[in-house]
Write a structure and sequence with these properties.
By secondary structure, the protein is an alpha/beta fold. The chain contains 8 helices and 17 strands. The strands form 4 sheets. The protein has a 6-stranded antiparallel beta barrel with strand order 12-15-14-13-16-17. Strands 3-2-1-4-7 form a 5-stranded parallel sheet, sandwiched between helices. Strands 9-8-11-10 form a 4-stranded mixed sheet, with no helix packed on it. A hairpin with a 4-residue loop joins strand 10 (276-281) and strand 11. The termini are far apart. 41% of the residues are buried.
């Protein structure tokens, strides 16, 4: 059915009444996505809630503090019942294992520090789930992410959330222009998480005071090592802790127990200057340590670049941007030099410590809240 171009736009940007606009809401069972679903249902939209079962939720029932567990599926279903819209649970266990968990394990064994939440958004939620939403004849898909979608002169743009403390731009840099055209983020403009919980109270949601998830959903209590040990038993093989000259200083019980930048727990004493993990060599089963200055990085190679600027990525030799190399760090000024449509070199104006392969490097406009995409840090 053709849209009436003379009709005013509804809150999701469509020129038709809310009741004629179908929106699939990705529901994790947490307060954020529950508020999105309740808000849109109250506004009169044709809401369909979808929750993904990403792993064996029989085992997950006993685990707290992570999204998509069995109790969360129950909570999402209950919100849908209370607000009066249909809710479906889709089994994505095989997709999730192939697209996210296996790469997570292999990346760690390769000495990288992966960010599986980005891959989940990229390969599951914004790919397969988005296609499911289209199969359901939805006009758009909404999520509870704290990020903003704004329509600019050249189409939809990705912008940081109004609340810098909740901003999730680091985890959504790989959202493509085509996906951005279809996605909606109703919470991105809110000033704080307290405002979200206040809305949950207003809608009478029983998840209003539910704690936020802290862990990666398939990593109980943040214990990466135990998960990888199950998936890849060889990861716990012992080996040597060596300095940058290859001199053996101590032994370790598996490279998975170490991260770039780690200082404590190395079992090396009696040194005048502290040593830090500067490299993980899984093939040689070596943890390489060195002085703190070796952690400082100025030049970062990136691959799989997703560019969200108005001009073509390779149309300039240099882009002056701010970049974030870890989710917990503020953006820092940098020069971004395209090498191809999907690879680049980033030069930091001030060196950063602990830049690790496997992490994302996200690009930001220095003069606004806009996100220009990003890429994956690799060894080059």
């Amino acid at each position: 059915m053709a849209l009436d171009q003379t009709a005013p736009l509804n809150s999701l940007g469509f020129a038709k009444a809310p009741e004629d606009t179908r929106v699939v809401v990705a529901m994790s069972g947490g307060v954020d996505s529950s508020v999105v679903a309740a808000m849109l249902a109250e506004e009169g939209y044709d809401v369909v809630g979808v929750t993904l079962q990403l792993y064996d939720h029989g085992a997950a029932l006993a685990k707290k503090g992570a999204c998509c567990a069995g109790i969360d599926i129950h909570d999402a279903r209950r919100v849908a019942e209370d607000m009066g819209f249909p809710h479906y649970v889709l089994d994505y266990e095989n997709v999730f294992k192939d697209a996210v968990i296996d790469e997570f394990a292999d990346s760690y064994l390769g000495g990288a520090t992966p960010v599986p939440c980005i891959r989940c958004n990229e390969r599951v939620k914004f790919k397969d789930l988005l296609e499911t939403a289209k199969d359901l004849d939805a006009d758009c898909m909404a999520t509870g992410h704290y990020i903003q979608r704004m329509v600019g002169a050249n189409g939809p743009e990705l912008h940081c959330a109004a609340d810098a403390n909740r901003d999730q731009s680091y985890f959504l840099f790989s959202t493509t222009p085509e996906q951005l055209d279809y996605l909606r983020f109703p919470l991105g403009h809110l000033p704080s998480k307290d405002a979200t919980r206040a809305l949950a109270e207003r809608y009478g949601l029983r998840v209003a005071n539910k704690p936020d998830s802290q862990d990666i959903c398939f990593v109980p209590d943040g214990d990466y090592a135990s998960v990888i040990r199950k998936l890849r038993p060889e990861a716990a093989d012992p080996g040597n802790i060596v300095d940058t000259n290859g001199t053996v200083l101590a032994q370790h019980d598996g490279v998975i127990n170490y991260t770039i930048g780690q200082r404590r727990g190395l079992g090396i004493g009696g040194l005048s200057d502290p040593l830090y993990v500067v490299k993980l060599d899984a093939d040689r089963k070596e943890v390489v340590v060195g002085p703190k200055l070796m952690l400082a990085t100025r030049t970062i190679p990136v691959k799989e670049v997703n560019w969200l600027g108005d001009e073509a990525f390779t149309s300039r030799d240099e882009w002056h941007v701010a970049v974030r190399v870890r989710s917990t760090r503020p953006p820092a000024e940098a020069i971004l030099r395209p090498l191809s449509a999907t690879t680049a070199e980033v030069e930091l104006l001030s060196p950063e410590e602990g830049v690790s392969p496997g992490q994302a490097c996200v690009f930001y406009d220095t003069d606004s809240s806009r996100i220009f995409g990003g890429g994956w840090i690799h060894r080059g």
